[in-house]
Write a structure and sequence with these properties.
Strand content: 15-25%
Distance between the termini: 52 Å
Radius of gyration: 21 Å
Order of helices and strands: HEHEHEHEHEHEHHEHHEEEEE
Number of helices: 10
Helix content: 25-40%
Length: 294
């Protein structure tokens, strides 16, 4: 464990920190898919990038957690690879799955040139889909891309809002993860949390740490977060008792949502990531007198 930590720290310091600094000195931004070999701490690696990114086949949640809690405005995805016979419905479904995972900028993987003599469906690179004029639905693709653009504009507006920030190595209860917006931090991203909240780049309601030592070692930062209205929960607190500002019945509906705040307005992007229509009741807590439904 100690050797892996040393290797991870060296990789972050000698590559991620250095390449990001080089990019910034030269007027560039570092967009990174931080996972892969050799293994490293993804919290620390994504912390040292300008834009966190995931891809179609691998979606580590640290990319969104780090972006949200440190105030990075963009979570990117290398999208639409390895999808045989993809149509507009398939692409819309996978767009929603990216949005569910915290992505707010979809990078279309590639467009390969396919000469007319190649026929239909034409040529493509091994990983990409046929996203070109050979598709029968291509004349209508502008409707899909317009919807994607509007959704991403909305999800890039303002800043992220979480119900709970979870500080610890253990995972939150599955039942709580299914109905709450939970972002996680490690020791390094926690150190940036107060600054993000004070700058108006991130909001959350509750902080819980599974390691009692975390509170003792970070007592000053925790006291400052309390001044910002954050409620600090005991380490053994049952997250299933936390109420979200949005809930639904029946409670087992596979609904996910993204919560953002912009200029005092509350934005809830609610989506159904399943392949079936859902029936139920969705309720948003309007007890805050500043909330006005639109």
């Amino acid at each position: 464990a100690d050797l892996k930590r040393v290797m991870s720290d060296l990789l972050v310091e000698s590559f991620f920190v250095e390449i990001t600094r080089w990019c910034q000195r030269n007027g560039l931004r570092h967009r990174a898919q931080a996972y892969g070999v050799p293994e490293k701490n993804l919290f620390d690696a994504y912390l040292e990038t300008d834009v966190t990114e995931i891809e179609q086949g691998y979606r580590p949640p640290e990319a969104a957690w780090v972006a949200h809690t440190t105030g990075k405005p963009i979570v990117s995805a290398e999208a639409f690879t390895w999808l045989p016979n993809a149509d507009m419905g398939t692409l819309r479904k996978h767009s929603n799955l990216f949005f569910r995972d915290g992505v707010n900028r979809i990078q279309l993987h590639s467009f390969s040139y396919s000469p007319p003599e190649a026929g239909v469906p034409g040529r493509r690179m091994y990983a990409q889909i046929h996203l070109n004029r050979t598709q029968v639905w291509w004349p209508y693709a502008n409707h899909l891309f317009s919807w994607m653009a509007r959704s991403q504009w909305l999800l890039q507006s303002g800043h992220s809002v979480a119900d709970v920030v979870y500080f610890g190595d253990e995972s939150p209860p599955k039942e709580a993860e299914a109905r709450l917006n939970i972002d996680r931090v490690n020791r390094n991203t926690f150190n940036t949390l107060e600054k993000s909240v004070a700058a108006g780049n991130f909001d959350f309601r509750y902080l819980i740490a599974t390691d009692p030592n975390a509170f003792r070692k970070n007592s000053r930062d925790i006291a400052t977060l309390r001044k910002h209205g954050i409620t600090v929960l005991p380490t053994d607190f049952d997250l299933n008792a936390v109420k979200s500002t949005i809930h639904w019945t029946p409670s087992d509906l596979p609904i996910r949502y993204v919560h953002r705040r912009v200029n005092g307005a509350e934005i809830y992007f609610v989506l159904n990531p399943s392949a079936r229509p859902l029936q139920g009741t969705l309720t948003i807590d309007l007890s805050n007198p500043d909330f006005v439904p639109e």
